[in-house]
Amino acid sequence: xxxxxxxxxxxxxxxxxxxxxxxxxxxxxxxxxxxxxxxxxxxxxxxxxxxxxxxxxxxxxxxxxxxxxxxxxxxxxxxxxxxxxxxxxxxxxxxxxxxxxxxxxxxxxxxxxxxxxxxxxxxxxxxxxxxxxxxxxxxxxxxxxxxxxx
Length: 150
Hints:
By secondary structure, the protein is of the alpha+beta class. The protein is 36% helix and 20% strand. The chain has helices at residues 11-22, 28-35, 39-51, 84-92, 118-129, and strands at residues 71-79, 97-102, 109-115, 135-142. The protein has a 4-stranded antiparallel β-sheet with strand order 2-3-1-4. The chain is elongated and about 55 Å long. The two termini are 28 Å apart.
C-alpha cells in the first residue's frame, strides 16, 4: 500500500474537522461562526482539506435497526497470501458489507456485515464470503448492541 504523506493541520483545521464530523450538513457559514473565522476563510480551509484528501466525503450515519438492518456481525477472514487484491474488490461488491479492514494478528481481514435478519446474515457469510476464492477461514461475532460515539 502506498504511503500517503500526512497533511499538516493546525488548530483551526482540527476544529473545522470536528464540526463537520459532528454534522456534515453544516453550512460553511455555520462552520465559520462556530470556529470563529470568516466565511471565506472557512470555505478555503474546507476546500483545501477536501482537495488534499483529509476530508474524503460527506455522508450520513444511519441507525441500522431503524433502517431495517436488524442483524449485524463482525466477520473475520483468514485469506491466502496473495488473495487480498482480488478479494477486496469482491468484498466491496457485497451490499451488506459496511466496512472492510486489512489487519494484522490472528486473522487478516475484519468486516462489519449488516443484514435484514439472521437468514440474510447467514446467506452473506455462508454463501458469499466462505465461497470466495482465497478465503481460508471465517469467524463470526454477532453484535447485540451498537454504540456509536460520533
